[in-house]
Amino acid sequence: MDISVKMSYDHLENEEIKSIFLLCAQIGPRALIMDLVKYCFGLGILEGVSSLWEAREKIKISIQKLKDSGLLLDESSNNHFNMHGMVRDTALSIAHKDHNAFNLRNGKLDDWPELENCTSISMCNSDIIDGLEVINCPQLKLFQIDTNDPYLEIPESFFRRMKNLREQLKKLRILSFSGSLKNLPTELQCLDKLRMLDIIDCSELKTIPPNVISRLTCLEELYIRESLIKMLVERETNKGQDLFLSELKNLHQLKVVELSIPCVSNFANNLFFDKLKDYKIVIGDFEFFSLGELRMLDKHETFKVLAINGVREVVNDLNIDGFQDLKHLSILNNNDIKYVNSTELCNYVNLFPNLESLRLCNLGVGFLGRFEKTLEPENNKRERAERENEY
Prior knowledge:
globular; LRR_dom_sf; eight-stranded parallel sheet; Plant_NBS-LRR
Protein backbone atom coordinates (compact mmCIF):
# COMPACT_ATOMS: atom_id res chain seq x y z
CA MET A 1 0.00 0.00 0.00
CA ASP A 2 1.39 3.38 -0.98
CA ILE A 3 1.74 5.55 2.14
CA SER A 4 1.22 8.89 0.36
CA VAL A 5 -2.01 7.68 -1.28
CA LYS A 6 -3.25 6.36 2.07
CA MET A 7 -2.50 9.72 3.71
CA SER A 8 -4.37 11.61 0.96
CA TYR A 9 -7.31 9.24 1.43
CA ASP A 10 -7.30 9.71 5.21
CA HIS A 11 -7.37 13.50 4.79
CA LEU A 12 -10.47 13.52 2.58
CA GLU A 13 -13.13 15.65 4.23
CA ASN A 14 -15.81 13.03 4.95
CA GLU A 15 -16.89 9.41 4.56
CA GLU A 16 -19.01 10.23 1.53
CA ILE A 17 -16.12 11.34 -0.67
CA LYS A 18 -14.03 8.44 0.66
CA SER A 19 -16.73 6.01 -0.50
CA ILE A 20 -16.86 7.74 -3.90
CA PHE A 21 -13.08 7.38 -4.24
CA LEU A 22 -13.20 3.65 -3.44
CA LEU A 23 -16.01 3.17 -5.96
CA CYS A 24 -13.92 4.93 -8.62
CA ALA A 25 -11.28 2.25 -8.12
CA GLN A 26 -13.77 -0.62 -8.17
CA ILE A 27 -15.60 0.50 -11.31
CA GLY A 28 -12.51 0.51 -13.51
CA PRO A 29 -9.45 2.43 -14.72
CA ARG A 30 -11.25 4.75 -17.16
CA ALA A 31 -14.93 4.63 -16.40
CA LEU A 32 -17.89 6.82 -17.27
CA ILE A 33 -18.82 9.52 -14.80
CA MET A 34 -22.45 8.61 -15.43
CA ASP A 35 -21.76 5.05 -14.25
CA LEU A 36 -20.33 6.47 -11.04
CA VAL A 37 -23.52 8.51 -10.61
CA LYS A 38 -25.59 5.35 -11.04
CA TYR A 39 -23.62 3.42 -8.43
CA CYS A 40 -23.54 6.23 -5.87
CA PHE A 41 -27.22 7.07 -6.24
CA GLY A 42 -28.30 3.42 -6.24
CA LEU A 43 -26.24 2.56 -3.16
CA GLY A 44 -27.45 5.62 -1.26
CA ILE A 45 -23.95 7.01 -0.73
CA LEU A 46 -24.82 10.65 -1.43
CA GLU A 47 -26.26 12.59 1.51
CA GLY A 48 -28.87 15.29 1.03
CA VAL A 49 -29.60 14.23 -2.55
CA SER A 50 -33.14 13.54 -3.71
CA SER A 51 -32.81 13.59 -7.52
CA LEU A 52 -30.45 12.26 -10.15
CA TRP A 53 -29.71 15.79 -11.29
CA GLU A 54 -28.53 16.69 -7.79
CA ALA A 55 -26.50 13.46 -7.69
CA ARG A 56 -24.84 14.31 -11.00
CA GLU A 57 -23.85 17.78 -9.78
CA LYS A 58 -22.54 16.44 -6.48
CA ILE A 59 -20.43 13.79 -8.25
CA LYS A 60 -18.88 16.49 -10.47
CA ILE A 61 -17.83 18.43 -7.38
CA SER A 62 -16.47 15.29 -5.72
CA ILE A 63 -14.45 14.33 -8.80
CA GLN A 64 -12.85 17.77 -8.85
CA LYS A 65 -11.96 17.44 -5.16
CA LEU A 66 -10.37 14.04 -5.82
CA LYS A 67 -8.38 15.57 -8.68
CA ASP A 68 -7.25 18.40 -6.40
CA SER A 69 -6.10 15.77 -3.89
CA GLY A 70 -4.11 13.94 -6.56
CA LEU A 71 -6.27 10.83 -6.25
CA LEU A 72 -7.73 11.14 -9.76
CA LEU A 73 -5.85 12.14 -12.89
CA ASP A 74 -6.56 15.66 -14.09
CA GLU A 75 -7.86 14.88 -17.58
CA SER A 76 -9.92 17.08 -19.86
CA SER A 77 -12.66 14.54 -20.58
CA ASN A 78 -16.15 15.60 -19.57
CA ASN A 79 -17.50 12.06 -19.59
CA HIS A 80 -14.79 9.90 -18.00
CA PHE A 81 -12.55 9.83 -14.96
CA ASN A 82 -9.20 8.10 -14.68
CA MET A 83 -6.99 6.88 -11.86
CA HIS A 84 -3.28 6.04 -11.77
CA GLY A 85 -2.57 2.33 -11.39
CA MET A 86 -0.67 2.78 -8.12
CA VAL A 87 -3.51 4.84 -6.65
CA ARG A 88 -6.05 2.23 -7.77
CA ASP A 89 -4.09 -0.61 -6.18
CA THR A 90 -4.01 1.25 -2.87
CA ALA A 91 -7.72 2.08 -3.10
CA LEU A 92 -8.62 -1.56 -3.75
CA SER A 93 -6.46 -2.59 -0.81
CA ILE A 94 -8.30 -0.12 1.44
CA ALA A 95 -11.68 -1.33 0.15
CA HIS A 96 -10.70 -4.93 0.89
CA LYS A 97 -9.29 -4.23 4.35
CA ASP A 98 -11.85 -1.74 5.67
CA HIS A 99 -15.02 -2.70 3.77
CA ASN A 100 -14.61 -6.41 2.98
CA ALA A 101 -14.63 -5.78 -0.77
CA PHE A 102 -13.51 -8.54 -3.14
CA ASN A 103 -11.87 -7.30 -6.35
CA LEU A 104 -10.34 -9.26 -9.21
CA ARG A 105 -8.66 -7.54 -12.17
CA ASN A 106 -7.28 -9.25 -15.28
CA GLY A 107 -7.05 -12.61 -13.57
CA LYS A 108 -8.58 -16.06 -13.24
CA LEU A 109 -10.89 -17.23 -10.49
CA ASP A 110 -10.37 -20.93 -9.73
CA ASP A 111 -12.14 -21.00 -6.36
CA TRP A 112 -14.28 -18.50 -4.50
CA PRO A 113 -12.69 -17.14 -1.30
CA GLU A 114 -14.56 -16.83 1.98
CA LEU A 115 -17.22 -14.18 1.31
CA GLU A 116 -19.52 -14.34 4.32
CA ASN A 117 -18.69 -10.75 5.36
CA CYS A 118 -18.14 -9.43 1.84
CA THR A 119 -20.05 -6.23 0.98
CA SER A 120 -19.07 -5.94 -2.70
CA ILE A 121 -17.77 -8.15 -5.50
CA SER A 122 -16.13 -6.58 -8.55
CA MET A 123 -14.51 -8.63 -11.31
CA CYS A 124 -13.24 -6.96 -14.49
CA ASN A 125 -11.58 -8.60 -17.51
CA SER A 126 -11.38 -11.85 -15.59
CA ASP A 127 -12.10 -15.50 -16.29
CA ILE A 128 -14.20 -17.69 -14.01
CA ILE A 129 -12.92 -21.22 -14.53
CA ASP A 130 -15.78 -23.30 -13.16
CA GLY A 131 -18.63 -20.91 -13.87
CA LEU A 132 -20.82 -19.23 -11.26
CA GLU A 133 -22.06 -21.27 -8.35
CA VAL A 134 -24.13 -20.47 -5.28
CA ILE A 135 -21.99 -18.46 -2.87
CA ASN A 136 -22.74 -17.35 0.67
CA CYS A 137 -22.74 -13.52 0.68
CA PRO A 138 -25.42 -12.37 3.13
CA GLN A 139 -23.89 -8.85 3.39
CA LEU A 140 -23.41 -8.24 -0.34
CA LYS A 141 -24.67 -4.90 -1.68
CA LEU A 142 -22.73 -4.54 -4.95
CA PHE A 143 -22.09 -7.23 -7.57
CA GLN A 144 -20.19 -6.23 -10.73
CA ILE A 145 -18.86 -8.70 -13.28
CA ASP A 146 -17.09 -8.09 -16.60
CA THR A 147 -15.84 -11.43 -17.86
CA ASN A 148 -13.94 -12.44 -20.97
CA ASP A 149 -16.33 -15.37 -21.45
CA PRO A 150 -19.24 -14.34 -23.73
CA TYR A 151 -21.09 -17.57 -22.91
CA LEU A 152 -21.02 -17.23 -19.14
CA GLU A 153 -24.48 -17.70 -17.66
CA ILE A 154 -25.64 -16.55 -14.24
CA PRO A 155 -28.03 -19.15 -12.78
CA GLU A 156 -31.04 -17.96 -10.79
CA SER A 157 -29.75 -19.85 -7.76
CA PHE A 158 -26.56 -17.76 -7.73
CA PHE A 159 -28.18 -14.97 -5.68
CA ARG A 160 -29.99 -17.30 -3.26
CA ARG A 161 -27.76 -16.57 -0.26
CA MET A 162 -27.32 -12.86 -0.89
CA LYS A 163 -29.86 -11.69 1.66
CA ASN A 164 -29.02 -7.98 1.40
CA LEU A 165 -29.81 -7.86 -2.32
CA ARG A 166 -33.32 -6.55 -2.79
CA GLU A 167 -35.95 -8.88 -4.19
CA GLN A 168 -38.79 -7.91 -6.54
CA LEU A 169 -37.02 -4.56 -7.03
CA LYS A 170 -40.16 -2.49 -6.49
CA LYS A 171 -38.06 0.33 -5.03
CA LEU A 172 -35.42 0.10 -7.77
CA ARG A 173 -34.15 3.53 -8.81
CA ILE A 174 -31.53 2.80 -11.51
CA LEU A 175 -32.06 0.23 -14.29
CA SER A 176 -29.70 -0.29 -17.24
CA PHE A 177 -30.26 -2.80 -20.04
CA SER A 178 -27.65 -1.17 -22.26
CA GLY A 179 -26.86 -3.43 -25.22
CA SER A 180 -28.66 -6.47 -23.82
CA LEU A 181 -32.42 -6.17 -24.26
CA LYS A 182 -34.68 -7.80 -26.87
CA ASN A 183 -38.10 -7.01 -25.42
CA LEU A 184 -39.10 -4.47 -22.83
CA PRO A 185 -41.17 -6.48 -20.32
CA THR A 186 -44.57 -5.18 -19.29
CA GLU A 187 -43.57 -5.90 -15.67
CA LEU A 188 -41.39 -2.81 -15.91
CA GLN A 189 -44.47 -0.68 -15.25
CA CYS A 190 -44.44 -1.94 -11.65
CA LEU A 191 -41.17 -0.10 -11.00
CA ASP A 192 -42.92 3.16 -10.20
CA LYS A 193 -39.96 4.42 -8.12
CA LEU A 194 -37.55 4.18 -11.06
CA ARG A 195 -35.49 7.35 -11.64
CA MET A 196 -33.28 6.27 -14.57
CA LEU A 197 -33.89 3.85 -17.45
CA ASP A 198 -31.02 3.10 -19.83
CA ILE A 199 -31.74 0.99 -22.94
CA ILE A 200 -29.10 2.44 -25.27
CA ASP A 201 -27.58 0.24 -28.01
CA CYS A 202 -30.23 -2.48 -27.76
CA SER A 203 -30.09 -3.32 -31.47
CA GLU A 204 -32.33 -6.39 -31.05
CA LEU A 205 -35.10 -4.53 -29.25
CA LYS A 206 -38.35 -5.45 -31.00
CA THR A 207 -41.09 -3.82 -29.01
CA ILE A 208 -41.91 -1.32 -26.30
CA PRO A 209 -45.39 -2.17 -24.99
CA PRO A 210 -47.79 0.79 -24.80
CA ASN A 211 -48.45 2.46 -21.45
CA VAL A 212 -45.33 0.99 -19.84
CA ILE A 213 -43.05 4.03 -20.00
CA SER A 214 -45.90 6.36 -19.01
CA ARG A 215 -46.34 4.43 -15.74
CA LEU A 216 -42.82 5.36 -14.64
CA THR A 217 -44.03 8.63 -13.15
CA CYS A 218 -40.83 9.24 -11.12
CA LEU A 219 -38.55 8.83 -14.14
CA GLU A 220 -35.96 11.61 -14.34
CA GLU A 221 -33.58 10.35 -17.02
CA LEU A 222 -34.21 8.20 -20.11
CA TYR A 223 -31.53 6.91 -22.49
CA ILE A 224 -32.92 5.16 -25.55
CA ARG A 225 -30.71 6.31 -28.42
CA GLU A 226 -30.14 3.78 -31.25
CA SER A 227 -32.62 1.26 -29.77
CA LEU A 228 -35.92 2.99 -30.49
CA ILE A 229 -35.08 4.18 -33.98
CA LYS A 230 -34.19 0.71 -35.27
CA MET A 231 -37.37 -0.74 -33.84
CA LEU A 232 -39.59 1.95 -35.39
CA VAL A 233 -37.90 1.81 -38.80
CA GLU A 234 -38.46 -1.94 -38.97
CA ARG A 235 -42.16 -1.42 -38.33
CA GLU A 236 -42.34 1.33 -40.97
CA THR A 237 -44.88 3.25 -38.95
CA ASN A 238 -45.11 6.72 -37.48
CA LYS A 239 -47.92 5.78 -35.13
CA GLY A 240 -45.58 4.00 -32.73
CA GLN A 241 -43.28 7.02 -32.64
CA ASP A 242 -46.14 9.42 -31.94
CA LEU A 243 -47.53 7.24 -29.15
CA PHE A 244 -44.11 6.88 -27.59
CA LEU A 245 -43.43 10.64 -27.64
CA SER A 246 -46.87 11.28 -26.16
CA GLU A 247 -46.02 8.97 -23.26
CA LEU A 248 -42.81 10.88 -22.61
CA LYS A 249 -44.66 14.17 -22.67
CA ASN A 250 -46.66 13.09 -19.63
CA LEU A 251 -43.60 12.24 -17.51
CA HIS A 252 -43.46 15.47 -15.53
CA GLN A 253 -40.28 14.59 -13.59
CA LEU A 254 -38.29 13.90 -16.77
CA LYS A 255 -35.17 16.10 -16.93
CA VAL A 256 -32.65 14.31 -19.20
CA VAL A 257 -33.34 12.45 -22.47
CA GLU A 258 -31.17 10.78 -25.10
CA LEU A 259 -33.42 9.83 -27.98
CA SER A 260 -33.32 8.78 -31.62
CA ILE A 261 -36.40 8.97 -33.82
CA PRO A 262 -36.62 8.09 -37.53
CA CYS A 263 -38.88 10.83 -38.87
CA VAL A 264 -40.37 14.24 -38.07
CA SER A 265 -44.02 13.40 -38.75
CA ASN A 266 -46.15 15.13 -36.11
CA PHE A 267 -42.98 15.86 -34.18
CA ALA A 268 -44.12 19.36 -33.24
CA ASN A 269 -47.33 18.04 -31.69
CA ASN A 270 -45.33 15.95 -29.24
CA LEU A 271 -42.72 18.56 -28.39
CA PHE A 272 -41.74 18.61 -24.72
CA PHE A 273 -38.00 19.29 -24.91
CA ASP A 274 -38.29 22.85 -23.59
CA LYS A 275 -39.02 21.30 -20.17
CA LEU A 276 -35.76 19.32 -20.12
CA LYS A 277 -32.48 20.36 -18.53
CA ASP A 278 -30.39 18.28 -20.93
CA TYR A 279 -31.07 16.35 -24.11
CA LYS A 280 -29.35 14.64 -27.03
CA ILE A 281 -31.72 14.04 -29.92
CA VAL A 282 -30.96 12.41 -33.26
CA ILE A 283 -33.66 12.92 -35.91
CA GLY A 284 -33.66 11.09 -39.23
CA ASP A 285 -32.30 7.94 -40.83
CA PHE A 286 -29.91 6.49 -38.29
CA GLU A 287 -27.83 4.72 -40.94
CA PHE A 288 -26.73 8.10 -42.32
CA PHE A 289 -24.98 8.93 -39.05
CA SER A 290 -21.48 7.47 -38.89
CA LEU A 291 -19.94 6.25 -35.65
CA GLY A 292 -17.66 9.27 -35.61
CA GLU A 293 -20.58 11.65 -36.01
CA LEU A 294 -22.43 10.02 -33.12
CA ARG A 295 -19.34 10.28 -30.94
CA MET A 296 -19.26 13.99 -31.72
CA LEU A 297 -22.57 14.21 -29.87
CA ASP A 298 -21.05 12.59 -26.79
CA LYS A 299 -18.25 15.10 -26.29
CA HIS A 300 -20.48 17.78 -24.80
CA GLU A 301 -20.71 17.85 -21.01
CA THR A 302 -23.87 19.93 -21.17
CA PHE A 303 -26.05 18.16 -23.70
CA LYS A 304 -28.69 20.29 -25.43
CA VAL A 305 -27.57 18.63 -28.66
CA LEU A 306 -29.70 18.18 -31.78
CA ALA A 307 -28.55 16.18 -34.84
CA ILE A 308 -30.76 16.24 -37.93
CA ASN A 309 -30.98 14.21 -41.13
CA GLY A 310 -33.84 14.09 -43.64
CA VAL A 311 -35.49 17.41 -42.75
CA ARG A 312 -36.35 19.88 -45.52
CA GLU A 313 -37.31 22.94 -43.45
CA VAL A 314 -35.84 22.95 -39.96
CA VAL A 315 -38.16 25.42 -38.24
CA ASN A 316 -41.41 24.35 -39.86
CA ASP A 317 -40.80 20.61 -39.58
CA LEU A 318 -39.47 20.61 -36.02
CA ASN A 319 -41.19 23.58 -34.38
CA ILE A 320 -37.75 24.83 -33.44
CA ASP A 321 -39.24 27.30 -30.95
CA GLY A 322 -39.07 24.42 -28.49
CA PHE A 323 -35.27 24.45 -28.74
CA GLN A 324 -34.53 28.02 -27.66
CA ASP A 325 -31.84 26.76 -25.26
CA LEU A 326 -30.15 24.60 -27.93
CA LYS A 327 -26.35 24.71 -27.58
CA HIS A 328 -25.06 22.31 -30.25
CA LEU A 329 -26.70 21.74 -33.65
CA SER A 330 -25.56 19.28 -36.34
CA ILE A 331 -27.25 19.01 -39.75
CA LEU A 332 -25.66 16.11 -41.62
CA ASN A 333 -25.83 14.26 -44.93
CA ASN A 334 -28.92 16.01 -46.26
CA ASN A 335 -29.04 17.09 -49.90
CA ASP A 336 -32.78 17.79 -49.74
CA ILE A 337 -32.71 20.49 -47.09
CA LYS A 338 -33.81 23.86 -48.50
CA TYR A 339 -34.42 26.29 -45.67
CA VAL A 340 -34.11 26.86 -41.99
CA ASN A 341 -37.55 28.34 -42.48
CA SER A 342 -39.50 29.08 -45.63
CA THR A 343 -40.75 32.49 -44.43
CA GLU A 344 -38.65 35.65 -44.30
CA LEU A 345 -35.31 34.66 -42.81
CA CYS A 346 -34.80 38.09 -41.31
CA ASN A 347 -37.49 37.29 -38.75
CA TYR A 348 -35.28 34.51 -37.35
CA VAL A 349 -32.03 36.30 -36.56
CA ASN A 350 -32.44 35.20 -32.92
CA LEU A 351 -33.50 31.71 -33.89
CA PHE A 352 -30.84 30.01 -31.74
CA PRO A 353 -29.93 32.59 -29.07
CA ASN A 354 -27.83 30.16 -27.00
CA LEU A 355 -26.13 28.23 -29.80
CA GLU A 356 -22.43 27.54 -29.12
CA SER A 357 -21.51 25.18 -31.96
CA LEU A 358 -22.93 24.53 -35.41
CA ARG A 359 -21.90 21.63 -37.64
CA LEU A 360 -23.05 21.46 -41.28
CA CYS A 361 -21.83 18.45 -43.23
CA ASN A 362 -22.70 17.12 -46.71
CA LEU A 363 -25.60 19.48 -47.44
CA GLY A 364 -27.00 20.94 -50.63
CA VAL A 365 -24.69 23.54 -52.18
CA GLY A 366 -27.21 26.40 -51.95
CA PHE A 367 -28.15 25.86 -48.34
CA LEU A 368 -25.15 27.34 -46.54
CA GLY A 369 -25.77 30.89 -47.78
CA ARG A 370 -29.37 30.81 -46.65
CA PHE A 371 -28.36 29.54 -43.24
CA GLU A 372 -25.70 32.20 -42.73
CA LYS A 373 -28.37 34.87 -43.16
CA THR A 374 -30.26 33.27 -40.30
CA LEU A 375 -27.26 33.02 -38.00
CA GLU A 376 -25.60 36.41 -38.30
CA PRO A 377 -23.12 36.38 -35.41
CA GLU A 378 -24.21 38.92 -32.80
CA ASN A 379 -22.53 37.57 -29.69
CA ASN A 380 -19.47 35.63 -28.67
CA LYS A 381 -21.30 32.34 -28.51
CA ARG A 382 -22.39 32.47 -32.12
CA GLU A 383 -18.99 33.69 -33.20
CA ARG A 384 -17.61 30.39 -31.89
CA ALA A 385 -20.02 28.41 -34.04
CA GLU A 386 -18.34 25.82 -36.24
CA ARG A 387 -19.39 25.70 -39.87
CA GLU A 388 -18.44 22.66 -41.90
CA ASN A 389 -19.72 21.79 -45.35
CA GLU A 390 -18.16 18.82 -47.11
CA TYR A 391 -19.26 18.17 -50.66
